[in-house]
């Protein structure tokens, strides 16, 4: 008798696709100001978790300090990463500035919480060197 196959919960299966996409995102506050408090980080996680759910994605990990946050997001292939990032940053900025106006205005001005840039790194799978070797081994015979 063969061992029972257990599905991997990270692998998403659609009608025409099987995928496992994770991204590590880092958002930095405007001017790298240390504006985020513990309560703000907790609320930021709640907001970002809801935004991810609205996109059909999942926020797997969240943490941060006073000047930046790290997210690990599991997302479907239909999601454009730039649109997800824009929503994560836009919604969290709007709500945190609304809910903590006095504190945020003490550190920042001009209507923005986050820097315009961000870091996005793919996560999981084999290292690039292993993939490169695998693809090279797929060359057609002469």
Automatic annotation (TrEMBL):
Signal peptide: none annotated. Residues 18-138 form the Transposase IS200-like domain. It comes from the Bacteria. Coiled coil: none annotated. SMART domains: Y1_Tnp. This is IS200/IS605 family transposase. It comes from Nocardiopsis sediminis. The gene is tnpA.
């Amino acid at each position: 008798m063969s061992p029972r196959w257990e599905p991997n919960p990270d692998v998403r299966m659609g009608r025409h696709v099987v995928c496992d996409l994770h991204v590590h995102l880092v958002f930095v506050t405007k001017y790298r100001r240390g504006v985020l408090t513990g309560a703000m980080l907790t609320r930021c996680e709640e907001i970002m978790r809801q935004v991810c759910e609205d996109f059909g994605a999942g926020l797997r990990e969240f943490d941060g300090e006073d000047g930046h946050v790290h997210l690990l997001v599991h997302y479907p292939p239909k999601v454009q990463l730039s649109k997800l990032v824009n929503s994560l940053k836009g919604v969290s900025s709007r709500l945190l500035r609304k809910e903590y106006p006095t504190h945020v205005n003490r550190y920042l001005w001009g209507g923005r919480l986050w820097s315009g840039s961000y870091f996005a790194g793919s996560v999981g799978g084999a290292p690039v060197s292993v993939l490169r070797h695998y693809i090279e081994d797929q060359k057609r015979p002469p």
